[in-house]
Amino acid sequence: MTPHVPALTLNDGRSIPQMGFGLWQVPAGRTAELVAEATEVGYRQFDGAALYGNEEGLGEGVRRCGLPREEVFVTTKIWNDRHGFDSTLRAAEESFARLGLDRLDLLLIHWPAPARNKYVETWKALIRLREEGRVTSIGVSNFAPEHLDRIVGETGVVPVLNQIELHPELPQATLRRKHAELGIVTQSWTPLGQSRTFDSQPVRRAAERTGATSAQVILAWHVALGCAVIPRSTKAERLAENLAALEIRLTPEEVADIERLENGHRTGPDPLTFS
């Protein structure tokens, strides 16, 4: 029996499955197979990007799985070197071609790349694509509060989602509050924090109480925070194990104790400087 995957409502009235399959570092040659296998255990959301080099496999996996297109939620992203209005439109068309899809469920700006200073024009291109019906929903990734304020202030359009690095060592409480104020869904990348807190006391205590693994406890923590989350694995059994974390219920005290593991550690670049 596959777990029920709850959906989070986006500010444009659409919805997104709360847990998805992140395709970062998934080998291109295995992507189609893994996407199809993931649908068999219950996944309906797949998070890709032009940078990942596996959009062809993502699209093939969506076609191979046999599900109606409207039942599979597909995300991809515009990379930093394609920022700018016209360049973004071209990059999106290239992603459509690689995916073999004529519509995307969600298109994100991968990073604000502030030194390039083109993310507002890039955002305007995403708005155009949404207006044309090529993209159903539009959002951002790795945007800080000042980046969000600028694109909303200059266009009046609020992203439906901001995909950010978020794990027990970097719980991003301030940014999550900003998202709540604006009605933006928080989506967590590198949700397990490279396993650095698996042996911490709060995680181990919750694992012992629930009979879950440390990874499942941390994924359940993301869900308890109200975040969407996109763990990655190349093993079918681990994909199922991750999805089973949706059945785990942490206590408010456990959620708070895990959040207190914060130390500011990032596994990836700083959005304020990375361009």
Automatic annotation (TrEMBL):
Q: Which reaction does it catalyse?
A: hydroxyacetone + NADP(+) = methylglyoxal + NADPH + H(+)
Lineage: superkingdom = Bacteria
PROSITE patterns named among the record's database cross-references: ALDOKETO_REDUCTASE_3 (PS00063)
Leader peptide range in chain numbering: none
- Ranges of residues in domain NADP-dependent oxidoreductase: 19-261
Spell out the InterPro entries in the cross-references: AKR (IPR020471), Aldo/ket_reductase_CS (IPR018170), NAD(P)_OxRdtase_dom_sf (IPR036812), NADP_OxRdtase_dom (IPR023210)
Binding positions for substrate per the UniProt entry: H110
- Catalytic residues in the record: Y52
Which Pfam families is this protein grouped with? Answer: Aldo_ket_red (PF00248)
**Keyword tags:** NADP, Oxidoreductase
- Gene Ontology MF annotations: oxidoreductase activity, acting on the CH-OH group of donors, NAD or NADP as acceptor
What are the site positions for Lowers pKa of active site Tyr? K77
What family is it from? Belongs to the aldo/keto reductase family.
Put simply, this protein is called Aldo/keto reductase
User: Which organism is this protein's natural source?
Assistant: Rubellimicrobium rubrum
